[in-house]
Amino acid sequence: MATRYLVLEDGTIYAGIAFGGSRDSMGELVFSTGMSGYQQSITDQSYNNEILMFTNPLIGNYGVNRDNLESQVPTCKGVVVREIARRTTNWRMTMSFSEYLEQHDIPGISDIDTRAVTRHIREQGAMRAALVNEVTDETMAELQKWARNPHAINESATHNAYSAPATGRRIAVIDFGLKYSILRELSKRNCDVVVLPPTATVQDVEDVYPDGVLLTNGPGDPTAVPEETLEMIRTVEQKYPLLGICMGHQLFALANGATTTKMKFGHRGFNHPVRNLETDRIDFTSQNHGYMVERASVDQTDLKILLEEINDHCVEGLRHQSLPAFSAQFHPDAAPGPHDADYLFDEFMQLIDQNPVQK
């Protein structure tokens, strides 16, 4: 078994056992508290540029199957676990977790005290990290120079429009790095879906004659998105009912004058309680975000806070006060995680029915 090293930007080094891909890699080290769903997590494009550490001590016991992918090509920079399962079994599996990472040349490291590393990140904040097969004098220097790719959305999202035809409401989905689970939730509601790239213009949206528009999740800093995209959102929300999810929530906020900021270590996992401030309903939610909408900035806009995280009062949803548009910072589509909040898709459908578009 080969040794691999996890090197943090503050100089902390952890030695473990290599699995998966063989290359060295750098990214922002983040942690997820999910008890399962490792396959959906690593194929979530929101982890582009990030080294994903799982706090659950055993990972990989049910292998990987083709049905639980959230994208075709994972873009996370590495995986950190306490223990990788030596035996994997599931009637749907097509390969082991380690084999899947090796297939996509994503390096993994096991036999790491992930509890200790998580505590370190919670105290110090998410930080740059490297997975290397050998620690050299250049490792730390290269790590200090590493910067998140500002064009991660362009790497993660589609470059060409495509459709998933059905006979129901037509939804224009603007792809910033979408999870397939969003499309599955729309499909359950018989939606006629047209997926557009993140560079979509107002004309591109109008050309598909949608009944509503959905802004998807995606990786990176929302302020790196071009002003043209925010202007598109400002125009589109005047014409069509709109739902923003995760990155889409943040872009919806920016387009309407609110601001965003980087969180200390983010929310990643499936046990985050969220309160609906309109109904006082509480749901457990699936979350994956390292940025958030600044609460005070909402007061200066036409938005109001719809949803908030109970533990730290982070803004988890917004509603426009005069337009049929709202957003959720978390994933009502889950995958993995609880489906408590999938009613938000039904609310989106009702909003469309109550605000028909003149075609």
From TrEMBL:
Recorded catalytic activity of this chain's protein: hydrogencarbonate + L-glutamine + 2 ATP + H2O = carbamoyl phosphate + L-glutamate + 2 ADP + phosphate + 2 H(+); L-glutamine + H2O = L-glutamate + NH4(+)
Q: Which residues form the active site?
A: C246 (nucleophile), H331, D333
GO BP: 'de novo' pyrimidine nucleobase biosynthetic process; 'de novo' UMP biosynthetic process; glutamine metabolic process; L-arginine biosynthetic process
Superkingdom: Bacteria
- Which UniProt keyword terms apply here? Amino-acid biosynthesis, Arginine biosynthesis, ATP-binding, Glutamine amidotransferase, Ligase, Nucleotide-binding, Pyrimidine biosynthesis
Q: Which SUPFAM superfamilies match?
A: Carbamoyl phosphate synthetase, small subunit N-terminal domain, Class I glutamine amidotransferase-like
The residues that the entry says bind L-glutamine are S46, G218, G220, M247, Q250, N288, G290, Y291
Q: Where are the stretches annotated CPSase?
A: 1-169
Note the NCBIfam families from the entry. Answer: CPSaseIIsmall, PRK12838.1
The record describes its quaternary structure and partners as: Composed of two chains; the small (or glutamine) chain promotes the hydrolysis of glutamine to ammonia, which is used by the large (or ammonia) chain to synthesize carbamoyl phosphate. Tetramer of heterodimers (alpha,beta)4.
Protein name per the record: Carbamoyl phosphate synthase small chain
